[in-house]
């Protein structure tokens, strides 16, 4: 899966989880700090589980420790790198 | 043990204790001559009072005002829906409810309602003698109805370390809500040692809370591993410079301990094991996951730990008195120990946690009984049966995953129908379950495996 569609997948999962959980999502941009996007810890956990199902990777459960992403751009990059 | 109010009002030492909320600070010494209950606290003497405020700061004040006065205090977490509050009030025999003030405060028939004022009102708070108060905490149960666990101030706080004289420089904070056991421990540490306590407010984001906590100069911070992982995803975490970091409520893995050590090199980092029923068992402060094997056996005070049938058992003065409902049911077994149902395995000189014997899923420190979620799924007439299990997740430890077998097995051409069944099932879960219990992933599968005993296989992931 190329980088563009990984980005699209990540963004669509963010939107779906926000809608399912009744959350208002901030306008999504690479610079947006994750904790200001409108999702809470449980929502992020659901995002990660959903992405594991659609992309078949979970960078947060990889053997080596990952640096936690702080912005949405870093979050997408993490999936780009792991799915590559 | 003195009541909380006695500890606050009669403390001879300088008392800097203060509750620090988003828009308000309450100095505890004010509560010796003023009240936020909207009524003379003496009017609630001997009553069973349900504390149902949404803001935890109000609950924090209410506990001080009513410990030693009320017969029973029932601490309700803020996410309970009204029908759950009604059910809890009924089972706990509540005859008074404390809520926040508002245009139309929530009321419950058969009880008196007391709307708290946003700030203390000077007035009649002179108290008669203090009497023993039961503290009732709520915890998850298999049926969906919360279990009511009865403690006393002694069982909750008797073993807490006391700084003497009070260390007024300490500023505590907790990501945990104080109406849960883990948060309540931090609340009691702060109040009984005369320290400031920074509390999160409803609707406050983790980033905002961290900024406020840093500005208040927090020195001691407590939360679950999941709380800490979320904090580490925030640029605001770098503003903190804590002396002491505490993790409890979930298994702390080596990765989260190492990451905290790297980000906060000056902090003492400890992870604790406690449960609502068993109380606090131990703190581990060597920076390693698991706990040393020598913790098993008799410990300081009357605390005693053992491992039997693979699970950790705890006998302690911190054990709850029992479960409430049709009288009091013991939380301890015939041997006098509480079975935590947490599986532990000894590897060389250390024990490590290996999941739950009863299949309970820990989502960010909150317990989910698979049976409760399955009963919601199975109520749909299209469902033959379902199995709910845990999937490891770094952000919340686990998430809930459901596999569902339909009565009419879907064929590939039925994909659209399958999607609509999934949506219906998830909506049913969202209507009846708390958000952390709703499956993060729901799959329609052709069949589920049974164990040799003919039961649904449960993995203890």
List the helices and strands and how they pair.
The complex is a heterodimer of chains A (84) and B (461).
Chain A: H1 3-20, H2 41-55, H3 72-83
Chain B: H1 4-9, E1 18-20, E2 25-27, E3 34-35, E4 48-51, H2 56-66, E5 72-75, H3 82-91, E6 96-100, E7 112-116, E8 121-122, E9 134-139, E10 147-152, H4 153-157, E11 171-174, H5 181-192, E12 196-198, H6 206-215, E13 220-223, H7 225-232, E14 244-247, H8 254-263, E15 268-275, E16 279-284, E17 291-292, E18 297-298, E19 304-308, E20 311-315, E21 322-324, E22 328-329, E23 338-347, E24 350-356, E25 361-363, E26 366-368, H9 370-378, E27 383-393, E28 397-406, H10 415-432, E29 441-444
Parallel strand pairs in B: 1-12, 4-5, 4-6, 5-9, 6-7, 11-12, 11-13, 13-14, 14-15, 28-29
Antiparallel strand pairs in B: 1-2, 3-8, 9-10, 10-21, 15-16, 17-24, 18-19, 19-20, 20-23, 21-22, 23-24, 25-26, 27-28
Overview in brief:
The complex is a heterodimer of chains A (84) and B (461). With 84 residues, chain A is mainly alpha-helical.
Task: Describe the fold and architecture.
The complex is a heterodimer of chains A (84) and B (461). By secondary structure, chain A is mostly helical. Chain A has helices at 3-20, 41-55, 72-83. The radius of gyration of chain A is 12 Å and the shape is globular. Chain B has an 8-stranded mixed sheet, with helices on both faces. The A-B interface holds A 20-21, 33-36, 40-42, 44-46, 48-50, 53, 58, 60-61, 65, 68-70 and B 205-207, 226-227, 229-230, 232-236, 255, 258-259, 363-364, 391-396, 399, 401, 426, 430, 435-436, 440-441.
Q: The CATH topology of the largest domain in chain B is what?
A: Rossmann fold
Q: Would you list the SSEs of chain A in sequence order as H and E?
A: HHH
By helix and strand content of chain B, what is the structural category? alpha/beta
> CATH H-level name of the largest domain in chain B... which superfamily?
ANL, N-terminal domain
Average pLDDT taken over every residue of chain B: 89
- In this structure, how is the largest beta sheet of chain B organized? 8 strands, mixed
Number of domains of chain A: 1
How far apart, in Å, are the first and last alpha carbons of chain B?
41 Å
